[in-house]
Amino acid sequence: MATSAPDQHEADPGFYGDAGQVEQESELKGDPTSKKREDGKWELTEGDAWDVLGYSFPTWRKWQILIVVFFIQISMNLNASMYANAVGGIVEKFGVSKQAARVPQMTFLVAYAFGCELWAPWSEELGRWPIQQMSLFLVNIWQIPCALAPNYATYVVCRALGGLSTAGGSVTLGVLADMWEPNDQEYAVAFLVLSSVGGSVVGAIVGSFVEAYLSLPWVFWIQLIFGGFVQAVHFFFNPETRATILLDREAKRRRKAGETNVYGPNELHKLTFREVWTIWYRPFYMFFTEPIVLWLSLLSGFSDALIFSFLESFALVYKQWGFSTVQVGLAFLPLLIGYFLSYLSYLPSIHRFRGIRRKDPGALQPEARLWWLLYLAPLEAIGLFGFAWTSLGPSHGIPWIAPMIFSSLVGIANYAIYQSSIDYMTAAYGPYAASATGGNDLARDFLAGIAALYSTPMYTNIPGRPLEYASTILACLAILVTAPIYIFYKKGPQIRAKSKFALSLDETRAKNMKRRQSSVAAAGLAGMKTGIDEKESV
Q1: 42 phi and psi angles, rounded to 5 deg
Q2: Which of 40, 85, 178, 357 has its CA 20 to 30 A from that of 389?
C-alpha cells in the first residue's frame, strides 16, 4: 500500500524533544562531526565514520538491498489486496453476507494505517533489519490461522493483527534514506514507489488464479509462501543500514582496537516514552494542521482507494462481456502498465532537475517537484469519466478494451500522485518529512480500508445506471482533490512560510554540506598523515 518518506534519525530535530531543537554542532574546535559530552564521553557521528555507513555502500549493493525491499513492499500490498479473492469462499463456507465477508479486508487496511506508525520508532532504536524481520515473521504467522480458520471471527481478528504487524513504508523507505542523501535519492524513491502502488495490482492478478483453481485456504497459503520467501531473502542478503546502529558497531570495534571513550549514538541515548510519543503523534498532528500535508494525503488516499474500489467493481463491469474470474484479474494488467509508463515518464524530469540542482543548489523550490504531476494528475478524472461511460458494455457496441484503456490512465495518475506527493513533502518539510508523509500513509491505507466496504454497494445500489454513475461520482471527486496541486505549485512558498514545521531547502542543504565537507576534510587529513608516515619510514 503505502510508503512514507525517508525517516532519518539525525534529520528529525523533534526526535529528542517536543521543542524540536537538538544541538548537533560540535564543542570541539568547531568540528561539526565530533560531539563531546559533559561526562567526557565522545559520541561517534556520521562524519567520523562515513565509510561504514549506508551512504558509502557501492552502488550495486545499494540497489541489491533496494530490490529486496521492493519485494517486501510487494508482499505487504499483495496481502492487502489478495483477500478480495477470498470473499466468495468465506460467504459459501461460513454463511455470512458478502458485505460482512469484506470486513476483514477493511480491518487489515485500517490496522495497517496505524501499524506503519507504530513500528517506526523501533526501527530508529533497534535498526531496520530486526524490525523488518520481526514484522515479516508476525505477518506470516497470522496467515496460518486465516488459512485454518474454523469460523468467520478468526478472519476479523487475525487480519487486524496482520495489519498492525505490517511495518510498511515507515521502515522500507527509511532503508532507502539510510543509503542515499535527499538530493540523490529521486531515482530510488521512484523505483520503490512502483512497488507500493503495484503490489495491490499484483495481488489482484495472482488472487484471481487462486480463486479460480484452488480452495479458500490457498488464498492465505500463497501469501504465506511469498511472505516466507521474501523474509528468507531479506534475512540472508540485506544488512543493517540504520546509521545509528552502524555507528554503535563502529564505536565498539574502535574500543576493542584500543580507542577509549568512544561511543555510538544509541549507546549514549535511549528512546524515552516521551520521545516515542512525539514520533507517534506528530504525523497525526501534521495531518490535521498542515494544509499541504492534509490535501496531498487526501489526494493520495483517494487515489489508492480507487484501486480497492476497482477490486470490487471490475467483476461487475467486465461480467457484461462474459469475463471469467481469471479474466477479471487480468483486467488489472492495464493498471500495472499505467504504473510502469508513469514511472518511465518521471525519469527524464528527475534527470533534468538533478542536473539543475547540482549546478545551482538554490535554483529550484520544492514546488518544482510537482511540475510533472501538473500534467499527469488530470488523467485521474479523465480516466474515471472514460471508465464510467465505457462501462455501458457490449449492448452499446463498446469493446471490452475501452474501459481498460481508461483504467490505465488512472494507473498513470495514481503513480504520479504518490511519487510527487512523497517527493514534494520530503523536500518541503526537510527534517519533518517522515512525519509529513506518515500522514500520507495514514490516509492511503485508511481510505483504502473504507473503500473495501462502500465500493460494491455504491456500484450496485445507485438507481438508474449504477456502474456509470458510481465512477462518474468518483471522477467528480477526483477533480476536487486534484485542484489543490495547482494551488500548491503557485502558492507553495507562501503556504510553507506560515508553517512551523516546513524548513527551507537552503537550511537543510547547508547542514548536509557541512557534514559532507567535514567528512571529506577528515578523510583528507587521514590521507595526509598516511603520506607523511610513509615518507618518514622511507
Answers
A1: -95, 130
A2: 85
Query: Does the residue 124 lie in any domain?
Result: yes
Interatomic CA distance for residues 440 and 293, integer angstroms = 7
Instruction: Please identify which residue in the block is written with the cell numbers 476497482.
Output: 310
pLDDT of residue 407: 96
CA distance 199 to 168: 12
State the DSSP H helix or E strand holding residue 263, giving kind and residue range, or none if neither: strand 262-263
Cβ-based neighbours of 142, under 8 Å, separated by 6 or more: 158, 159, 161, 162, 165
**Domain count within the chain:** 2
- Please tell me whether residues 335 and 407 are part of one structural domain: yes
Q: What is the pTM of this model?
A: 0.85
Q: Which residues contact 318 (CB under 8 A, 6 or more apart)?
A: 327, 328, 331, 400, 403
* Interval 486-513 mean pLDDT: 72
Nearest to 146 by CA among 38, 65, 224, 42: 224
Q: What is the CATH number of the domain that holds 57?
A: 1.20.1250.20
Task: Give domain status of residue 372, yes or no.
Answer: yes
pLDDT, tens digit, 9 for 90 and up, residues 150-199? 999 999 999 999 999 998 777 887 898 899 987 788 899 999 999 999 99
Give the closest residue to 162 by CA, choosing from 80, 68, 82, 71.
80
Rounded-to-integer distance, Cα 56 and Cα 265, Å: 19
Give the residue, 40 or 525, on which the prediction is more confident. 40
Q: Determine the structural domain holding residue 158 and report its residue range.
A: 42-271
